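Sequence, please.
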């Protein structure tokens, strides 16, 4: 098999995966995740049941892939932010807000995507998750080097604090739209406010 044949084969595999994915997402949005069956997905994507499971071990795996797609887009945005000459605080808030905005397009399905994401969040082999954490830590490290953020708090710990606040705020918005003990939240303003509180604590005294 030549390199051209291999490239063509890989491209065809990726096209099949994408076709299954897009068919599944369309059905999830029109019928709901729970009501959609694998058989309906394969029929819409015009593939066999075995082909579906070759690419996605279970129906929930489609959501995991969607979560990864969201992270990839956020990662591209973050890479662009790194090149901008702005305070690290602004960049960090903007990056988390940008990732959160991907969940606002379809709140109901985002609940399933978020749940699947949480199952995989701490898997050490998740390359995309690791790259995302590295990106956040790079922004923090630059803020420390510029005298904006405290150097007595490690980039790893600071990233963990910010990500925890992000996850809890997103969970609150997704799963407690009416009442979660403290009432409903407006996602973007609430996320900005909570991240700002943490960043106030991480700021060097002269930069607060």
């Amino acid at each position: 098999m030549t390199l051209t044949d291999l490239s063509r084969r890989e491209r065809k595999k990726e096209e099949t995966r994408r076709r299954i994915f897009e068919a599944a997402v369309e059905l999830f949005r029109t019928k709901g995740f729970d009501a959609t069956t694998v058989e309906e997905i394969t029929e819409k994507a015009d593939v066999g049941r075995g082909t579906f499971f070759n690419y996605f071990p279970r129906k929930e795996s489609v959501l995991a892939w969607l979560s990864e797609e969201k992270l990839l887009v956020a990662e591209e945005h973050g890479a662009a932010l790194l090149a901008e000459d702005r305070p690290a605080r602004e960049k960090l808030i903007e990056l988390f807000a940008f990732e959160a905005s991907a969940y606002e397009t379809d709140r109901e399905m985002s609940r399933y995507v978020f749940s699947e994401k949480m199952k995989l969040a701490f898997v050490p082999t998740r390359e995309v998750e690791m790259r995302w954490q590295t990106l956040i830590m790079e922004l923090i490290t630059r803020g420390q080097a510029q005298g904006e953020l405290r150097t007595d708090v490690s980039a790893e710990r600071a990233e963990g604090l910010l990500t925890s606040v992000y996850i809890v705020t997103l969970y609150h918005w997704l799963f407690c739209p009416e009442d979660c003990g403290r009432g409903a939240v407006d996602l973007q303003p609430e996320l900005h406010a909570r991240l700002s509180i943490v960043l106030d604590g991480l700021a060097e005294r002269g930069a607060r």
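The chain has two domains: 1-56, 58-207.
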